[in-house]
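Field log, afternoon session.

UNIT: design team B
ACTIVITY: writing a sequence onto a fixed backbone
BACKBONE:
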């Protein structure tokens, strides 16, 4: 039995591989940097992030990347001592892969593959051939899955691109993976769109080129017909198979946990289920429900950072490629310095922004900010960020020469500010966000036991369904803009 999600929060499109008794998993990252977080586990339940595959701008150009652009679904594979991660940068360049002999270290620069489509996957056959599989459009303009053989050293295509399966009729066949299991080649893909009709289907053939025979009980994974009260999980799909060290099979996939009817805001999360085989076809077991914690120990520590360190913790991400000069752990010992520019949270640029994925519904985030604006309009604070058009933040700024704090809520073309709270003097300010499924509540003050509520905002307006169809989830982040120079310490994320 597994407790799902195994990796909560915005970690979609999971891909998994096994090396001995070690399991490694990659997930999509879209417009956030570094790209493609990598996780490790020994038991498939407990996962630790060990790095990212894309840590340099030479690997990951996110300039001008729109919301939910950038890096789409990765595939992670291991062959002859080397790890490969293949993906699509839909904003710059298309399909490419990187590789490493040390998954805990740096990855290569990109090797580009000149095949259209998204969601590329690699399959290393026993005869040495390397098959590249991705979404495609056939000669009639119909979406399908296509494959070719490539030179793994150069990315050069060694065969023509051939459509090999159109799926079972669901919209947008995508996320293909090719496997050789016993006497068959299996092609598995997602269909139905990464929404509430999402599903996983599979077919098999005697050759990698087909023809592929669909599984008689497709879809092999879906909750498309479940009511909102029937399960905690919806939108199941985009799966990958792994044979475990104990001889069993498992499937990782993503799903969403709605906060309320047909709304979700913390992203598509990584799940797992056991797989058995019957007459040569996979049967996916039950999907275990999430833990419901009690209130005896209401807040559990998740991330705590004093910033008395040489580098930011691995869980922290930037919005697009960061300007490194605007971030410093050395400017003031024990603090993270953020220097704001004219790039703001509303822009499709690189604002001074660094934070963590929201991985739980019930969260308490605290941070202390030492900031006295030098002129009116400079601002810094903490934000609940989904896109450049959907974000809430506690703003510490100077207005008419008075230091104030207020809540600003941006949702599409609407922007609302709370009444300001004056904060005289130069005392550091404590900022707090308390979240549950439905509401974010924001507090500020100079004494932790006497924080004042400055406003609240609904999670509804930060939900994917209220945005322009995003593939990401909310971040809890520090930011600075308009020339502000702010120092942050004691970043604490608790959950229950």
């Amino acid at each position: 039995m597994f407790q799902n999600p195994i990796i909560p929060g915005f970690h979609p499109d999971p891909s998994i591989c096994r090396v001995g008794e070690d399991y490694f998993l990659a997930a999509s990252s879209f417009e956030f940097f570094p790209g493609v977080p990598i996780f490790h586990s020994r038991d498939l339940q407990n996962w630790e992030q060990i790095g990212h595959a894309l840590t340099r701008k030479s690997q990951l150009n996110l300039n001008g990347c729109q919301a939910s652009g950038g890096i789409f679904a990765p595939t992670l594979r291991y062959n002859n001592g080397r790890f490969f991660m293949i993906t699509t940068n839909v904003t710059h360049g298309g399909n490419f892969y990187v590789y490493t002999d040390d998954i805990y270290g740096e990855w290569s620069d990109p090797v580009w593959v000149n095949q259209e489509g998204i969601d590329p996957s690699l399959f290393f056959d026993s005869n040495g051939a390397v098959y590249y599989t991705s979404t495609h459009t056939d000669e009639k303009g119909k979406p399908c899955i296509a494959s070719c053989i490539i030179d793994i050293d150069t990315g050069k295509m060694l065969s023509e691109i051939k459509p090999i399966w159109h799926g079972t009729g669901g919209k947008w066949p995508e996320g293909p993976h090719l496997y050789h299991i016993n006497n068959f080649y299996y092609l598995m893909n997602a269909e139905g769109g990464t929404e509430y009709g999402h599903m996983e289907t599979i077919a098999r053939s005697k050759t990698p080129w087909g023809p592929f025979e669909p599984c008689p009980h497709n879809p092999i994974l879906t909750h498309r017909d479940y009511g909102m009260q029937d399960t905690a999980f919806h939108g199941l799909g985009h799966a990958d198979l792994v044979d475990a060290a104990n001889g069993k099979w498992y499937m990782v996939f993503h799903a969403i946990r709605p906060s309320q009817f047909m709304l979700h805001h913390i992203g598509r999360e990584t799940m797992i289920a056991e797989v058995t085989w019957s007459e040569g076809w996979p049967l996916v077991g039950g999907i275990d429900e999430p833990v419901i914690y009690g209130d005896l120990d209401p807040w559990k520590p998740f991330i705590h950072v004093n910033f008395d360190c040489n580098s930011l913790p691995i869980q922290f991400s930037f919005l697009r490629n960061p300007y490194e000069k605007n971030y410093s752990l050395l400017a003031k010992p024990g603090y993270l310095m953020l220097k704001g520019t004219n790039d703001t949270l509303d822009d499709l640029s690189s604002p001074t922004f660094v934070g963590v994925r929201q991985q739980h519904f019930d969260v308490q985030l605290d941070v202390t900010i030492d900031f006295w604006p030098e002129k009116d309009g400079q601002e810094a604070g903490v934000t609940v960020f989904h896109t450049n058009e959907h974000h809430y933040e506690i703003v510490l700024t100077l207005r008419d020469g008075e230091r104030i704090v207020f809540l600003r809520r941006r949702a599409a073309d609407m922007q609302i500010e709370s009444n300001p709270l004056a904060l005289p003097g130069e005392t550091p300010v404590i900022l707090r966000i308390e979240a549950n499924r439905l509401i974010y509540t924001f507090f500020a003050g100079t004494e932790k036991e006497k924080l004042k509520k400055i406003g609240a905002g609904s999670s509804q307006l930060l939900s994917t369904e209220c945005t322009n169809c995003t593939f990401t989830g909310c971040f809890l982040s520090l930011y600075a803009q308009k020339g502000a120079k702010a120092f942050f310490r004691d970043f604490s994320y608790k959950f229950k």
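LOG NOTE: The radius of gyration is 23 Å.
NEXT ACTIVITY: expression trials, pending approval
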